[in-house]
Amino acid sequence: MPEAIDRRRLVRRHNPVLTSAHPADVLTVGNGDIALTVDVSGLQTFPSFHELVPDPHRVVRDGLTGLPEQRPRVFDADDFQIPLRTQSTWGWYETRADRELRLEDATTLYETSRGPVPYLDRMGLQRAGDPIAEEFVTGAWYHFNPRRAHLGRLALVRPDGTGPGHPAALSDVRTELDLWTGTIHAAYVLDGEPVRVTTVADPHDHRFAVRVESGLLLRGWGVAWVFDDQPDDLAAFELPLAQKTTWDRRAEHHWNARRTVETLTYGVSVSTTGSLRQAADSVVAHANTAVLEVVVTLAPDRQQDERGFSAVRDSARAWWAEHWSTGAAISLAGSTDARAGELERRIVLSQYLTAVNSAGATPPAESGLTYNTWTGKFHLEMHWWHAAHFSLWGRGHLLERSLRWYHGALDAGKVTARRQGCRGARWPKQTDPSARESPSNIGVFLLWQQPHVIYLLELLRGEGRGEAFLREHYPLVEATADFMADFAEERDGSYELPPPLIPAQESYLLDRATNADPTFELAYWSWALRVANDWRVELGLEANQEWDRVARNMRRPTVLPDGTYAAIATPPLLIRKDHPSMLMALGWLPETHLVDPATMSATLDSVWEHWDLQSTWGWDYPVMAMTAARLGDTSRAIDALLLPSPKNVFLPNGHNPQIPGFLTVYLPANGGLLAAMAHLATAVNQGAELPDGWLITAEGLPALPHPSVMPHP
């Protein structure tokens, strides 16, 4: 019997520690629904140092496909930044345009066997000095609206209310995130005085608490809550933002504010052990002692109870200790391979970052609550990457929070399906809390997000959820499967996935009107429809014969002359760059009747030897690792997770920037790493041998759905 993992020691040996300032060195506290990102001061004191460099030629695109001149600005390794934001799952606003806009004006009709089908694919340049074609204005506005709001900022300020300017003003810096308690401790010298700052987020409410200890407070320094302007640039057709703040002084130590940004109105309560005074669009807390505590509570729709710093800190300590103590743990202690410590660090930090950014009431954005990409919208094809690992690591309750969003989005999904001539509900790619589909020349043609809700619900069913859970969520399973069965087309006794479509490997954008039968999506369609019928049987219903017929008779994926899988069944069949998505048909998915393990093994070999691996993205390394683990090749699984690539670098804070590119935070890579480690640990538990120098100790890992780890050929 292996010795139990000392979880506290495992977690704390990877606490991020910052001893100097860098534009990407930030730390975040939060609870999945709200987050606050700070600099080395322990607060948000130096926003301009961390602000993203504006790009006047940024282009509205869903990815980096296309010609180089169409790609977003490239950030050099020493040039990229992570900005300081306070963001939530509920804080969104819409801009106003200088003309009337109708969503239907962003559609193009594509010829299909069901007749002409409208797709919201008209979109154009945004925030660019170049003129934009009128027919694309509507698509651009809907693509970028609504926007996730920056709710405000906590900063250390001088007696006159200004900040200290630049982090070079700090010396002897040591800022540490204690992962075990979810608390940031900052210590430094500023203006000749030692400063100690403790920052923490309430695990249950929209609240942050700060304690500052310094002689600077006796000299008039304070802590300010500042309402910054929203960071998103406006396009030429968007009107200036309407912003307003109303202050209400409840007591010397307690002020309330109502903040309005266009369509968003929210409340902010600031309380302190000192006293408060208003200064323009901020309120500043001062003290007549060397200790000052400030608590900021944000209220999207209700008045929340007031709590002091100690109560918030103690609540966070209890929540995070329970979080780390329950669910799964993986330790690489005892490994002699020089890379083991780095892999373990990535594993631990990814658990923290996804709990803070990806465990809220809505599916998360690719940069979570840290800062906005695509104005904060979330991409449903990434939902699996962000959140499946919660269940794979025995923390399914964190996944379940965001799955409830699909119930509110169900009607919108049904409208899309009907508009495209199908039953059921079609889930969008890029969306927001409203569930409105965003115009896109890529996203509206993607299919692989469609079965995700079935997969994620199946993970929770595998945890032992009871009949009440199944009945609550079965409407999502049914509507999802109805669309899938209706969308597939029967030809000569087999079912195909017809155009227009773009596979998970988005390199086939230009062929969207003719693309058909992508390898991964064929297997995913078949597997998910079978799972949907499993739900019916468990609920005492008869199996849906149409779902079963489509699942059993899906077309087999195309095999190339070299004995490996193509990406799609239509020309050009395979492009060896970007996501090697055909690997996901076995690895990310369990074994199905459509996929031959020997052929997939040859495909993995081919990707390893011939793919442009430097063009891959942060979740592609977990893709390769999961396929290798399913095939029993643990050595290649580990090598994939640690593959040298600019997009497989993990910063001291655990974030994975996509360089070159415009994503300086990419949480699908963190979630993918955790999912891949669950696959790897399962392979080891089922008898697969690790390479020399590696020792993996795992505890608390649930079984994978339909596990099938095969002996390495």
Automatic annotation (TrEMBL):
Keyword Hydrolase applies: yes
Keywords: Glycosidase, Hydrolase
InterPro entries named among the record's database cross-references: 6-hairpin_glycosidase_sf, 6hp_glycosidase-like_sf
GO MF annotation terms: polygalacturonase activity
EC number: 3.2.1.15
Biological process annotations from GO: carbohydrate metabolic process
Enzyme class: hydrolase
Protein name from the UniProt record: Polygalacturonase
